[in-house]
Amino acid sequence: MSINDMIIVFYGELSTKGKNRMDFIKLLGQNIRASLKEFPALKYEVKRDHIYIHLNGEDKDKVLARLKKVPGIGAVGYAKSISNDMETLCKEAAELYLESGVKTFKIDTKRIDKSYPVRSDDVSKEVGAYVLEHCEGAKVDVHHPEVLIYIAIREDGTYIYAKPERALGGYPLGINGKSLCLLSGGIDSPVAAYMMMRRGIKLECIHFAAPPYTSGAVIEKIRDLLHVLNDYQSDIKLYIVPFTELERKIYEEAGPSYCVTIMRRMMLRIAEGIARHHKDLVLSSGESLGQVASQTLHSIRVIEECCNMPIIRPLATMDKLDIIAIAEQIGTYDISIRPYEDCCTIFTIKDPATRPNLKKVREIESRFDYASMISDCIKNTTYEHITPDEEEF
Which helix (H) or strand (E) segment is 133 a member of? Predict the structure, then answer.
């Protein structure tokens, strides 16, 4: 690897933006620098078309791996710095073609340095002819090539690259504001958190703890999940709500049929109070339609009636197997299936209401002073910042 090699960042979806495109790109550039802060030799060029990261001897594989987890990056490509004489261009392009293992190709040359004596189209034709002559089975396809080989002739050097690797996509973290995410520790809510981050939403998380009914291992499980999500957001604030007394009272007053409905309403009231205080714009959760009793349309309508804040459910229409596949992909699945119960599962519910009646819900809630208990929960909520483990760097 040459000290002058670089990585090219492709924007993906945010490239569709209009007048505010540079606002997105500027924030993405800041996020990239923060994500790569342990690589001090890197040099950055933040442009309207791409971001160019000059490696200056840093480990390209480590840098690429980190970039693939930065929200807002559509793809990343390693560009090799080469001599701009035609013989070198031809040989390097042929090598890239052979490495791709495909049949059809196209050469795309950009002559940023206009003092270079050969026109872009002529470079592409000569290099393409060399590949056809020296690589058995090679065919040119100018419309739908299996591999597109790029040559960029710049003032600071000539670069060649092919087939950028897909990255996370979405929008730069923080561009769409901040959300408070309800995190249970199951399979779904960490995936929902990941999907919110992909859309450029910075997260804070809230967990409802009910000791001694729930083990302290649940909190460790939550921390471990958030350490995985630190790949996408390096500092995640976690609120831990002491929910034991309120949950016990809910079960006492509501009984087994309505306790989950009432409990979820109380959670939303608490989450809304904390979110508003800390300027989160919306709540978010891992609910998926019909998956459990509290996630039927009838239940959702009754449960969220008490909340005056928007609730985003990124998994609402997803199949469970698809959710599991994402959990496995991002590394949260094995943590999520640890056998530690959260406060939503500690009581045995034989006949939960799937079509709860709002009038009955309000009548049950009128039996006790839940407002003061919610106030106590919020007042006694603790928080911590979850950041990457030191050994990861």
Answer: helix 120-134
